């Protein structure tokens, strides 16, 4: 299967108002070029160094989505390159983002990452920590929250649906509360093996890697 064919098939299986982010981590620039030719403008990377390299080399009309854990000492390298940071996963990171953006007089758009299954192996806030971080966001001048990102625990379709539903609920609850600097527009959930269920449960953006570019080794 070609990258172009993969993209066409995925696009056919999803509504037009859902954003498809092609997760290009570990893949060479020629692969990204094929996806670009097939119409993809949103690319996802999870390593700062890799995002920077591809940013320099690649088309300038691309929107780069940072989807990995972001160390505070690397913020400065990507705040002017990432279109959206999906992985706001600690108040420490929030405060440091605010500081760096203030220094550069620039706004940054982020998603709060939720660890919905409370897994030790994953980053992100637990549901009961959200009030605290949202209160902190209200005091920011530069960091904006545009929605939520989740990586659900591995499981079957039924458990996937359960975690997507719970995340959608949290998304709607935060939306109702009308926090300063927070607009719930983007619900980033679903990857290669579960994106169709995620869309059924309200995802507005899906992050697909292997389904487009083939297996990562
Ligand atoms: C790698 C990655 C993806 C893509 O996963 P696939 O199974 O290859 O579709 C999506 N989201 C995040 C956060 C990732 O790290």
UniProtKB/TrEMBL annotation:
GO molecular function: pyridoxal phosphate binding
Alanine racemase N-terminal domain boundaries: 2-215
Residues bearing the modification N6-(pyridoxal phosphate)lysine: 25
Co-factor(s): pyridoxal 5'-phosphate
Domain of life: Bacteria
Protein family membership: Belongs to the pyridoxal phosphate-binding protein YggS/PROSC family.
Name of the protein: Pyridoxal phosphate homeostasis protein
Organism, scientific name: Clostridium fungisolvens
């Amino acid at each position: 299967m070609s990258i172009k064919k993969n993209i066409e098939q995925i696009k056919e299986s999803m509504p037009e108002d859902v954003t498809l982010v092609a997760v290009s981590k570990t893949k060479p620039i020629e692969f990204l070029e094929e996806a670009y030719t097939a119409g993809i403008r949103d690319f996802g990377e999870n390593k700062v160094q890799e995002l920077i390299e591809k940013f320099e080399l690649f088309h300038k009309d691309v929107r780069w989505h940072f989807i990995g854990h972001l160390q505070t000492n690397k913020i400065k390298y990507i705040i002017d390159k990432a279109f959206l940071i999906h992985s706001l996963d600690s108040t420490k990171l929030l405060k440091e983002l605010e500081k760096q953006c203030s220094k550069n007089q620039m706004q940054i758009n982020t998603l709060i990452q939720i660890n919905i299954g409370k897994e030790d192996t994953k980053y992100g806030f637990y549901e009961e920590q959200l009030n605290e971080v949202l209160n902190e966001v209200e005091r920011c001048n530069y960091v904006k929250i545009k929605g939520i990102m989740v990586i659900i625990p591995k499981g079957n379709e039924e458990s996937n649906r359960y975690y997507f539903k719970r995340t959608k609920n949290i998304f709607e609850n935060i939306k109702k509360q009308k926090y300063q600097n927070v607009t719930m527009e983007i619900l980033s959930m679903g990857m290669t093996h579960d994106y169709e269920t995620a869309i059924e449960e309200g995802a507005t953006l899906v992050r697909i890697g292997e389904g487009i570019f083939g297996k990562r080794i």
